[in-house]
Every structure is written in C-alpha cells, then in structure tokens.
C-alpha cells in the first residue's frame, strides 16, 4: 500500500494509458457482402491516426482470413480529433472474396 503513495505520477500515467483504450465496433455486416469496422480512441490528439487506420485494416483482414477468404478494401475514412469530444476514428469498408 505504501508503494502506491510513493509513486503517484507513475500511477497517474498508468491510469491515463488505460483510459486511452481503442474501442472497436467489431466487424459489422452491411448489405451485398459489404462489411465495416470502425476504430476510435478517446486519446484525442495524442493518438497516431495512422495507427488507428492500421488497426482497423488489420481487424478487417483477420476477419476475412478466419473465413479462408481474401480481404478487399472498398473504402477507408479517417476522421481527425474534433473540438468538444469528437474523437479520432478510422472506418474501413471491405469485402471478403
């Protein structure tokens, strides 16, 4: 217990890292075989948007690979952080062929 109070800055940093989790919608089935993955983070300007895009593409690719199919990207959209809580997002529209 004493160690926690000894390192308050370290504890605060650990809490910040946990708070910056990257939520995902998972793979969402749309129409005509089209699927979507959206990744976002509440880290604001402190999160690399290219990393967010890469994570969304990886999740989409993994989904197709698990079905024994090839990933084909249809569209990708990135949204930068916006004022008043508009968190950065990456949206991947894809098909598994």
Please outline what is shown here:
The chain is an alpha+beta fold and 97 residues long. The chain starts with a helix and ends with a strand. It is built from three helices and four strands; from the N terminus they run H-H-E-E-H-E-E.
Fold and architecture overview:
With 97 residues, the protein is an alpha+beta fold. 36% of the residues lie in helices and 26% in strands. It has helices at residues 2-6, 8-19, 49-66; strands at residues 28-29, 35-40, 71-79, 89-96. It has a four-stranded antiparallel β-sheet, with helices on one face. β1 (28-29) and β2 form a beta hairpin. It is elongated, with a radius of gyration of 17 Å.
**Biggest sheet layout:** 4 strands, antiparallel
Report the radius of gyration as a whole number of Å. Answer: 17 Å
Large-scale geometry = elongated
User: What's the average pLDDT?
Assistant: 80
How are the strands of the biggest sheet laid out side by side?
1-2-4-3
Beta-strand percent range: 25-35%
What is the number of strand segments?
A: 4
Write down the domain tally: 1
Number of helices: 3
| Span of the ends, CA to CA | 55 Å
Overall structural class, as computed from helix and strand content, comes to: alpha+beta
Uncertain segments of ≥5 residues (pLDDT<50)?
Answer: 9-19
What order do the helices and strands follow? HHEEHEE
- What level of helicity do the residues show? 25-40%
